[in-house]
Amino acid sequence: MFRPILSIVLGLIFLLAACTAIPSSTPTPASLPPTPSPLPTATIQPSPTATVAVADLRRPDENGINMEAKQLTTSITLDGNLSEWPSFPCYTLDQKEYIAYGDVASWGGPSDLSGSFCWGWDPEAIYLAAEVFDDSLRVFSKGNFWENDYIELWIDADLIGDFDKSQNDGDDFQFGFLPGNFADIPARATVFVPGVSTGKLRQIEVASAHIEGGYRMEIKIPFIVFGDVLNLSTGRLGAALAFSDCDSDKPAQEMMISSAPKSISQWGNPTLWTNLSLIGYGTTPAPIPLPTPTATPTATTGSTPSATATPSKAPRITITVNHNTPADQQIVYLDVDNNPLTGSRSIYPGLGVDFLIQDDSLYYWTNLVNPYIWAPNAWNWMSIVRVKNTATQSVWKFSSLAIRRPDLSSSRPIKVAFSRQDASWAGLYFSHIITMSEYTLVHTEPPPAPTPTPAPLYSFSFQNNFNSGDHLFVYVDADDNAATGFSIGGRGADYLIQDSWMFKWTGSWSGHACALSATLNANALWQFPSTCLGNPSFGFKIIFQRQDSSWAAVYTSPAVTVSGYSVSHTEPPPPAVYTFTFNNNYNPGDRLRLYLNTDNNSGTGDWIGGADYMVEWYPSGPSVALYAWAGFWNFIFCPSLNASGTNTTVWSFQETCIGSPAFPFTANFVRLDSGWNIQYNGGPIGISSYSVTHSE
Question: What mean pLDDT value characterizes the chain?
Answer without folding.
Answer: 84
